[in-house]
Design brief:
By secondary structure, the protein is an alpha+beta fold. The protein contains 3 helices and 3 strands. It has helices at residues 3-14, 57-69, 94-99; strands at 32-39, 42-47, 76-81. It has a 3-stranded mixed beta sheet with strand order 1-2-3, with helices on one face. The longest helix is centred in the middle third of the chain and has 13 residues, at 57-69. Residues 10-79 form the MIP18 family-like domain.
Length: 103
């Protein structure tokens, strides 16, 4: 399986993870900035949160790590949290904006 296929599977998994305070998955919220494969089975997930003081930060990061690492295609995952650039609602998908009433 190639990186593109694996990336699609990773995205589908990320779409099952929700910020507990917002009824939209973290991928459509625009919290995932980058998926970078070091090797075909080693992945870095660069992501942010909706706010630097998010009380659920540890839980969300751990869930991303556990769910992605559970994929048979992924041997190792590194989740990197950044606030540069800061998240804003313009990073959300059209579906997320519609779900949250921004459209």
């Amino acid at each position: 399986m190639g990186k593109k296929e694996t990336e699609s599977i990773v995205v589908e998994v990320l779409k099952t993870i929700y910020d507990p305070e917002i009824p939209v998955n973290i991928y459509d919220l625009g919290l995932i900035y980058e998926l970078d494969f070091y090797e075909e089975d080693e992945l870095k997930v660069l992501m942010t949160l909706t706010a630097p003081n998010c009380p659920m930060a540890d839980q969300i990061l751990e869930e991303v790590n556990e769910r992605v690492k559970a994929l048979p295609q992924i041997e190792d995952v590194t989740v990197v949290l950044t606030f540069d650039p800061p998240w804003d609602k313009d990073m959300m998908s059209e579906e997320a904006k519609l779900e949250l009433g921004f459209l």
